[in-house]
Design goal:
This is DUF370 domain-containing protein. Pfam families: RemA-like. InterPro entries: RemA-like (IPR007169). The chain is of the alpha+beta class and about 80 residues long. The protein has one domain (about 5-80). The chain has helices at about 25-35, 70-80; strands spanning about 5-10, 10-15, 20-25, 40-45, 50-55, 60-65. Strands 3-5-6-4 form a 4-stranded mixed β-sheet, with helices on one face. It has a two-stranded antiparallel sheet with strand order 1-2.
Amino acid sequence: MCRFLDIGFDNYVNINKIEKITQYSSAPTRRIIKDAKYNELINCTAGRKTLSIIFTKDNKIILSAVGKEILIGKYKSIVKK
């Protein structure tokens, strides 16, 4: 069964494909975003400030305007069900 994580602005990610969720503030993660190729980066911020980054198992990088702590809380509540 596919379960999805709401990452804001009607955007969802399959929880089985999430590898890690990090916050955007560190320099190494900003470098990763800068170096990401066009087809690897998915911007789901709707023009808002990027607060978290989701790395997927299929090497996609997803930017979200929802904070890391909120996303992890949502993820844990979905996994418990």
